[in-house]
């Protein structure tokens, strides 16, 4: 009866994956990402198998092999520098958002979320473009990359939309092998060139690519590392309003009450005035940001720092029509990308890949995002309180590990059934084979099989 339940669960998982890939049209999407290997296998087949591997929480080396191909074939495909993995992630997100749009209230503010996380490769030595990456959690440099990620959110569901695996633009910080190709006429060359540029400029490229592939958004949410008048202006040129945490730097100034002041000076001016701090925020004001000689309206919101009462945080946005409470609420949605990073590392092995190729690591990140899209879609469909982690373990339970002793018991039972029926083989021949088989097994397994 136990084996019947296991088979039933596995069929449920296969049906679940088939339903998802059919919903987003993965077969047609894979035809648009420059997959040109001379093989009878399709990228669609390989991605379905990779989804099974990700949901089982295993690496390619320990995964159950397919009857149609080996794990080496999959690694070769992931290492193919001609495949446009970024476009694959964009198209999958766009197809999934298309099915979610009827469920989203028209008053919802759709937003991109930008952030990066450490892609650790501590034991790697010669991986291409391996660099010194700063770990903000531990406060030190380590070997690896920065996984720059662009996400999409409707305040309910978060979906990864685009990404770039960033190295370092400083040659002395590159620890691994240099780029294999620098020819920007090829996709592999453009990908490596992108990895060695400033992240602030790469973010704009990722957003442009997402918009070009039909991903809808009105806002872009980001942390202080991307906040600058230039970044806000570039987003405005794309028809998007930026909203982010600002640095309290004396190098950046805004026009307020006819004077050019820093954020700190504006705060001190408001504090010395007759304005009383609100319950949700302290102060809010309209200023003029500038890029060169170009000026544009900008709203500042000063919020009390919960961790340090003597300090404060500053939010800024080009959407001046939003009320301060709405700005704070919208910026709070940025935390969804942090939850994605934690889940992807804890459950989907984001930073535990054994692939050594730079192109292969880019493909690995795309597969992780595809698996996360699948779980996010399932969480949106079911009406229960299960988290994404609960869903991962629920799907993982549908792929049970069969003990070696159990498999051997099944084999012996099948052979015994042939003995009773005496079909195709003589009884004495089968008994001889069984005896020979048992004598060559370890003593521990022999005792378990005899007792079973």
TrEMBL record:
<protein>
    <submittedName>
        <fullName>Transposase</fullName>
    </submittedName>
</protein>
<dbReference type="InterPro" id="IPR012337">
    <property type="entry name" value="RNaseH-like_sf"/>
</dbReference>
<dbReference type="InterPro" id="IPR038721">
    <property type="entry name" value="IS701-like_DDE_dom"/>
</dbReference>
<dbReference type="Pfam" id="PF13546">
    <property type="entry name" value="DDE_5"/>
</dbReference>
<feature type="domain" description="Transposase IS701-like DDE">
    <location>
        <begin position="60"/>
        <end position="252"/>
    </location>
</feature>
